[in-house]
Design brief:
single chain; mainly alpha; two-stranded antiparallel ribbon; 21 helices; 2 strands; globular; transmembrane helix
Length: 478
């Protein structure tokens, strides 16, 4: 069968290459062939698609391509991976995943996705004079949430989960090395703009203006300093736990990401991420997780050293927690006007636009849960809370001290990372509806619940078995 398909596939590729060579420039034709070969490979091996998504989503999250519809490369790969999963499922080549009733977090997340139909329809009706497509934004958000179900399908074995973590950390390491190197050389957050242009980032003029406005804070492929802070809050605990329990290059990878990520966090000056990581580390220290107390002291010492060596950081930190800080004042205004926005849109504004709605006097809201209310109404926020409660019931640690080992490193690191991301949601809204960031958050949730189900199998719901008595012939008593 494979030999019989080999010749037609080779002929088809040859014809496509010839057409692209005639219609496109040599560089674009080469990129097209490489992309087509990658797509065919992912269709055969869906796990490779998930690993490629994890690497590219952390390295160049908002790099775009235009195939009739403009999309980020990361989202295109995630959608292609789903196509590969469906194709391989049709061919019966994928192992069966546990039924949905045995996956409480996934089940509640599915209810949230189904409910989102209502605010989507409401937003399409009440939000007018907006050119963006609510349908496209809604489908992109659903695609991001579906990362949980992809994990259940493709990360069946612990080795596959470790491969995903390696892919996440490799992409993060490349992003950190590039961002820090550019910032150290240019001493400006806008110094990374030419690289983002090369990566085909959209709305480049507006992006460059934003980077120049925050030039004292490190720029990165995540575009906004607070966004890279949120990603560091999500991934640094995983990198630390992975590095501390591995050996060789894997240990260097994990600890390298943890150290560079801490430096990037200071250079980006994301106070929400700083506070959330500090609180999670304190929680880990109270649970007697090894090395966390030392890590807090080392982090404080490195912070002092970096502040002394970089005067602009001194100025930033001097005002970062001040009530006179401009971003603090904006947040107070957002909270003050939020009840008026909820009264104006009690069922949410849907997916046509991010808050605030153009033409209204309202502001957005820098809070994960309140942003859910803004977009999907109170019911949508309550469903998100229900998902997090279900997740915590599955993933929570047992009582008593937590011992960090190679066996539980992925579970503990991802648990701490998700907690840090949720705490950072008190200060920023990125993990609610921001593309790619949301997908990485739910990818981490998917990884975490799989590890929790392996480590704590007794928490899984038990099957309710109904015993049927064999029917006896008439007149015969059992």
């Amino acid at each position: 069968m494979r030999d019989s398909l080999g010749a037609p596939v080779a002929i088809l590729f040859g014809l496509l290459f010839g057409v692209m060579a005639l219609a496109l420039s040599p560089v674009k034709a080469l990129l097209g062939v490489v992309g087509l070969a990658a797509a065919v490979t992912i269709l055969r091996f869906p796990l490779w698609g998930l690993l490629l998504f994890a690497m590219l989503a952390t390295f160049m999250p908002y790099s775009t391509l235009n195939l009739g519809i403009r999309s980020t490369v990361s989202e295109a790969i995630l959608a292609l991976t789903w196509g590969a999963v469906l194709w391989q499922t049709f061919l019966s080549r994928l192992p069966a995943a546990p039924s949905l009733w045995r996956r409480p977090t996934d089940q509640m997340l599915l209810w949230l996705m189904l409910f989102s139909v209502f605010p989507f329809i409401v937003g399409q009706v009440i939000v007018v004079d907006v050119e963006t497509s609510g349908m496209a934004n809604w489908l992109r958000w659903l695609l991001s949430l579906s990362a949980v179900f992809l994990c259940a399908k493709l990360l069946v074995e612990p080795k596959q989960r470790e491969s995903l973590v390696v892919a996440l950390l490799l992409g993060t390491l490349a992003m950190l090395v590039m961002s820090i190197a550019v910032f150290v050389r240019t001493r400006s957050g806008a110094g990374i703009a030419p690289i983002l242009a090369l990566l085909n980032y959209g709305n480049f003029d507006m992006l460059k203006f934003g980077l120049e406005a925050m030039s004292s804070r490190m720029g990165s492929p995540w575009m906004h300093p607070n966004a890279i802070g949120g990603i560091m809050a999500l991934l640094l605990p995983l990198a630390f736990c992975f590095g501390m329990t591995e050996r060789g290059w894997k240990r260097a990878l994990g600890l390298g990401v943890a150290c560079l990520g801490a430096a990037a966090l200071l250079l980006a000056s994301s106070r929400g991420a700083m506070v959330s990581l500090a609180l999670v580390l304190m929680w880990m220290a109270t649970r007697r997780v090894p090395y966390t107390g030392r890590l807090l002291m080392i982090g404080a010492a490195l912070t002092v050293a970096l502040v002394l060596a970089y005067p602009p950081l001194q100025e930033r930190l001097a005002t970062i927690f001040s009530s006179d800080n401009a971003s603090t004042e904006i947040r107070f205004d957002e909270y003050r006007m939020f009840p008026q926005a909820v009264a104006a849109y009690p069922f949410g504004i849907g997916f046509k636009v991010d808050p605030p709605v153009p033409g209204t006097p309202f502001l957005g809201i820098s809070n994960l849960w309140l942003n859910f209310i803004y977009k999907t109404g109170i019911v949508g926020m309550l469903l998100f809370v229900a998902v997090t409660v279900r997740w915590w019931r599955e993933a929570r640690p047992e009582r008593g001290p937590i011992r960090l080992t190679k066996d539980n490193a992925l579970w503990l690191g991802s648990t701490a990372g998700i907690l840090a991301a949720l705490v950072s949601g008190l200060f920023d809204h990125y993990f609610s509806f921001a593309v790619v960031m949301v997908a990485l958050f739910w990818l981490m949730v998917g990884l975490n619940v799989l590890e929790a189900r392996r480590l704590f199998p007794t928490r899984a719901p038990q099957v309710k078995r109904v015993a049927y008595r064999k029917q006896q012939p008439d007149g015969v008593r059992p």
